[in-house]
Specification:
mainly beta, 11 strands
Length: 150
C-alpha cells in the first residue's frame, strides 16, 4: 500500500490498492480511498495508454447530494465521459465513508474478451494508472482538480 499525497501536509489524501482476487484469479480486487469535503466529492482511477485524458477506462467512487456513495464504471472520449451499461466487469462493490474519508472496494475482471468495446481495457496489458479527484455537479462527476501520477 502506498499513499499519494499532493498537498504540503502530512495527510494521506488518496490511497489505491490492488491484488489478485483470492477466489477467482480472473479478477483484481481494488480499494480506492480519498478524503472528501465541499470541493472533493469523488476520487477515480483510470487505465490509460498514456498520462493524458482520452480513450480511458475509468472507475469512480463518488458521493452524491443524497449523502450516499456510488461506484461508476465509465470511459472517456477525449474530455467527454460516458458510462458503461450494466456492471461491465465490476463485481463485489462496497462503499463506506467515515470522518470525511470515502472508501470504495470492487473487483474488476482482467481480460476484456467477450466485451464488445475496446475502450474497456484488458488489464493483462500494460497501462498507466491515473488518479483524479474533483467535485460533483448534481449527480454528474465534474472536472477533476488534481491528477497525481502513479
Amino acid at each position: 500500500k502506498s499513499c499519494l499525497d499532493t498537498s504540503s501536509s502530512d495527510e494521506c489524501l488518496y490511497l489505491v490498492t490492488f491484488k489478485e482476487n483470492a477466489d477467482d484469479s480472473a479478477y483484481i480486487d481494488f480499494e480506492l480511498s480519498g478524503q472528501y469535503g465541499d470541493d472533493y466529492l469523488y476520487v477515480s482511477i483510470s487505465f490509460s495508454d498514456d498520462d493524458k485524458m482520452g480513450a480511458d477506462d475509468i472507475i469512480a467512487c463518488y458521493k452524491k447530494s443524497d449523502g450516499n456513495l456510488y461506484i461508476k464504471h465509465s470511459r472517456n472520449h477525449g474530455y467527454e465521459n460516458e458510462g458503461f451499461s450494466g456492471d461491465y466487469g465490476i463485481t463485489d462493490t462496497k462503499a463506506t465513508h467515515v470522518d470525511n474519508v470515502m472508501r470504495c472496494g470492487f473487483s474488476r475482471i482482467i481480460d476484456n474478451t467477450g466485451y464488445e468495446d475496446d475502450e474497456y481495457h484488458d488489464l493483462s496489458k500494460e497501462w498507466v494508472l491515473v488518479l483524479a479527484a474533483g467535485a460533483m455537479d448534481g449527480s454528474t462527476v465534474d472536472e477533476h482538480y488534481e491528477i497525481p501520477r502513479m
